[in-house]
Amino acid sequence: MKSIIKYLLLCVPALLMTNAAAPVARAQAVSQADLIHPKPDMWPTFSGDYSGKRYSPLRQINSGTVKGLTLAWISRVNMQSPPTYSDGPGNQPPNATANNSGSPLEVNGILYMTEPNALFAIDARTGREVWHYQWKGVPAESLGNRGAGIYGDWIYFETPDCHLISLDLKTGKQRWAKQFADVKQDHWCSDAPLIIKNHVIVGVGGDFLDMANYAEARDPETGDLQWHFWTTAHQGDPGFNTWPSEKAAEHGGGGVWTPPSYDPDLNLLYITTGNVEPTMVGVSRPGDNLYTSCVVALNPDTGKMAWYFQMSPHDTHDWDASQIPVLADGVINGQPRKLLLQAYRGGLFFVLDRATGKDISTTPFVENLNWYKGIAPNGQPIPDTTKEPSAAGTLTSPPSGGATGYPSPAFNPDTGLFYVGTSQQFTVFYRTDLDPQPEGYGATEHGAGSIASELRAIDYKTGKIVWKRALGRGAQNLLTTAGGLVFGGDGYNNYVAWDAKTGVPLWHSGLLGNSSNSITYMLDGKQYVVVAAGEYFYAFSLQGVN
Amino acid sequence: MSTNLKSAALLICVALAHSTTALAQGGGGRGRFGAAGASDGPPPVQLLGGRFKAYPQDAADRGLPLYNTNCGYCHGERAKGGKSGPDLVTSDVSLHDEDGVGIGEYLKGAKHQGVAKLDLPQSTVYDIAVYIHSRITVAALNRGGDTHPDEVLKAGNADAGKAYFNGAGGCTKCHSVDGNLKGVGAKYDAVTLQDRIVMPQRGGGRGGRGGFGAAPAGPPGPLAITATVTLANGQTFRGIPVRVTDFDVTLRFDDGSTQTWARNNGVPKVDLTDPLAGHIEIMKTLKDSDMHNLTAFLATLK
Question: Could you give the number of structural domains in chain A?
Fold first, then answer.
């Protein structure tokens, strides 16, 4: 009885807060203000807002109440069900089963989730399918899709064959489809569009055939091109001299395939770029190879570059910088600073001034890294060239998969901690393509023993690890809340809520797979946490809250 | 219409028919080599990597010398570009070509005729185009490639490896050249030997914490990870860990049976024993030169 009373008492402030909120009108259009400061009943961008923090101010589910979290509904995404609407120039079948690798969105009581060539609208209260759109594309790599973007009454998503699709948010009826990359060049597109004012930001990826990639802004009403930014420095661009030739630069990779972040006060868009190509052999591309493996700040109205910061000069290990750039306002040495935080695939935690791109600190967030000789005064690592892949084999940590990957980290402004899934492993990189003009990957790797996989909490002020929790592989895709919680998968098919301050697990539920990104929102005074695992979506809410 | 053009037309028709079939079947997936079609009717067109049309190998084989004779002077070896001709592996003309039709049209066009006049029969163009397509698919899909054991051997010094084996490496704690490593150099190539240094094979059970997967029934092999579960009352169980998480632990016993315990706040306690922990530990300080030398030494143990 004591615990029930304690539970009810803990719920009271949150219930009062939510009951006091005005009733939600039906089908509100999503405004720019909503994307900057989302209402409690919505999760309208990949990361919840523009900041990439994946932080929710909701606190009904908190460290005191989370033990009462229980399943509200479960929903299977049925790729074989007949679509409500479909269109497209080809006959490419959808993947046989769903395997969510992006983030759902939630607006007006409807969840929106993507798969390659498909977008599903699902009732956020019940899990029932509302509508389902299918794109009939031409053959293209269909590994995954990060999600959609919403603005006004429209939803936008990218297809593997690089079309930007605009659908009616309420019905799923197609408004237009615009191709923005040539799939014959082996580009493939999977990013979640981000809408900034009257710009839909899209990214083009693909690191198989050596090509240059780019980001673009498209008109939300028509899909027409507004600006185009090459992610490799072309002739006349600053940094072009980091390539040996125009040909190398124009075939140098730098895919844009994870969602950017945006600071409305600075009016800067932060995109991240993928690995250079040829990927693991650098003999034909001496130089830093800008702007691959970078964070690049752009003016979203013009596409003009404000600054760049390269996490891995002249990368030869497939370490893109595609990890989510997290925008946080913090205090460094007693001074308030606008920060950009990134846990980079190569195992380094970067704290940048997001107004200038200047590095504030660079620290390893895992142990046993052996690929760089030190940190330069500008905060960049100095690569150890002896650790490039060789025909004889080069023992390296981390492997190409990195010390972390594309799944989302999270930052909680209440704790000041940056949460990230990590792994430590060695690998032997073997150069396979011995031609002086290698192509594609040009190397392979043979994995060595795994040392550790952990969820880690980093103090952004010092780079120090405040707590860590041993978990399985894939322990990422994190969400944090004002309720003092971090949600995510543990790599063993458990979806877990950890105490944000200590890392102690407070609640878990076993799922039918490892979880992808989760989101949270408030409907009818009830906070939901929704998570995908494979082809299933699960919604959790507190027992006793109606 | 030439034989090759007829073949091309047939292939296009087959491709369209196959695509419709595949949609109806809802087949597909990543990196597939084309979904299987119905057992009757024309064979389906294969898509390499799920997106590149597969062409006959014999045409690619014919195309290589034809390419070298007619194109290689300008476009370089392997169509990677030369002094006076662009890279054809990543050229839009090649990438948009199908069955040599687009390449043939380009060759006849003013742009190419202005720099090099080529008057080739379409059957030759087809074979050259297929060779170029084979280069495109290799470049785009060959993410690994073959390793070079001879290069591994060349990099190492067997004498230095022997000294490392008997000294700083500490290998003799568990290994001997006349015992468990006898003849190892005859059993494996140099790449495999080197891989075994940093990733020995356990013969059942995998490394890491949790998610160990199923182990074969019977007593654990000498290299398998084992776990001891200690309950709150002090009772202990030893077996092969199938799964160890913060919330549960599952052991498999010698008779093949399994048992799971729920865990809370680290209770019951789980202690793992990994006989190969030394190999994982040594990676933290192992130099590439020591790894190559050790491999060269192991290769002499024939």
Answer: 1
Q: Do B155 and A440 touch (CB under 8 A)?
A: no
8 Å CB contact of B90 and A185: yes
Shortest CA gap B246–chain A (Å): 8
Q: Which of A49, A318, A433, A490 is catalytic?
A: A318
Based on the residue annotation, tell me whether A318 is a catalytic residue of this protein.
yes
Whether B132 and B255 map to the same domain: the answer is no
Q: Using one digit for the tens of pLDDT, what is the confidence trace for A96-139?
A: 888 888 999 999 999 999 999 999 999 999 999 999 999 999 99
The residues, any chain, with a CB within 8 Å of residue B58's CB and separated by 6 or more, are none
ipTM, 2 decimals?
0.90
Is the Cβ–Cβ distance between B87 and A284 less than 8 Å?
A: no
Tens digit of each residue's pLDDT (9 = 90 or more) over B172-224: 999 999 999 999 999 999 999 999 999 887 654 333 334 455 555 667 788 88
Give the span between the Cα atoms of A277 and A284, in whole angstroms.
Answer: 10
Cβ-nearest to B145 among A208, A444, A496: A444
CATH number of A301's domain:
2.140.10.10
| Total residues found in chain B within this entry | 302
Chain A residues with beta carbon closer than 8 angstroms to that of B49: 141, 208
Residue B74 φ/ψ, nearest 5 degrees: -95, -40
Whether residues B155 and B131 fall in one domain = no
Total domains present in chain B: 3
Q: For B28-40, what is the mean pLDDT?
A: 33
- Tens-digit pLDDT profile for residues A11-55: 444 443 433 344 444 578 999 999 999 999 999 999 999 999 999
Q: Are B44 and B55 members of one domain? A: yes
- The verdict on B211 touching A (C-beta cutoff 8 Å) is yes
Q: What is the pLDDT of residue A474?
A: 64
Measure the CA–CA gap between A255 and A244, rounded to whole angstroms: 20
Q: Which residue of A has its CA nearest to B198?
A: A448
Domain limits at A354? 2-542
Contact B35 A93 (CB under 8 A): yes
Could you tell me if B172 and B286 lie in one domain?
yes
* CA A70 – CA A544 distance, rounded (Å): 10
- Residues B266, B294 within the same domain: no
Which residues on chain B are in Cβ contact (under 8 Å) with A451? 280
Q: What is the CATH number of the domain that holds B233?
A: 2.30.30
The domain boundary, picked from B141, B168, B185, lies at B141
Distances in Å between the alpha carbon of A97 and those of A94, A163, A533, B50, B272?
8, 22, 12, 16, 37
Q: Which of A26-35, B76-85, B90-99, B272-281 has the highest mean pLDDT?
A: B90-99
Asked if residue B41 and residue B128 are part of one domain, the reply reads yes
* Contact across the interface for A426 and B19, Cβ inside 8 Å: no
Rounded Cα gap, residues B260 and B252, in angstroms: 9
Q: Tell whether B155 and B288 lie within a shared domain.
A: yes
Nearest residue, CB atoms, A492 vs list B142, B207, B210: B210
Residue of A nearest to B31 (CA): A141
* Structure confidence at residue A68 as a pLDDT band (50, 70, 90): very high
Residue A291: asked if its preceding bond is cis (omega within 30°), the reply is: yes
Tell me the C-alpha distance between A363 and A379, whole Å.
Answer: 9
Between chains, do A437 and B207 touch, taking CB under 8 Å as contact? no
Residues B131 and B226 in one domain: no
Q: Which of A186, A395, A444 sits opposite B286 (nearest CB)?
A: A395
Among residues A504, A501, A479, A499, which one has the least CA distance to residue A489? A479
A141/B209 CB distance under 8 A? no
B242 touches chain A (CB under 8 A): no
Does residue A10 come out as left (phi exceeding 0), alpha (psi in the -120 to 50 range) or beta?
alpha
Of A391, A397, A473, the CB nearest to B151: A391
A250/B contact by beta carbon, under 8 A: no
What domain range includes position B36?
3-141
Residue B41: predicted pLDDT: 54
Chain-centroid distance, C-alpha A348: 17
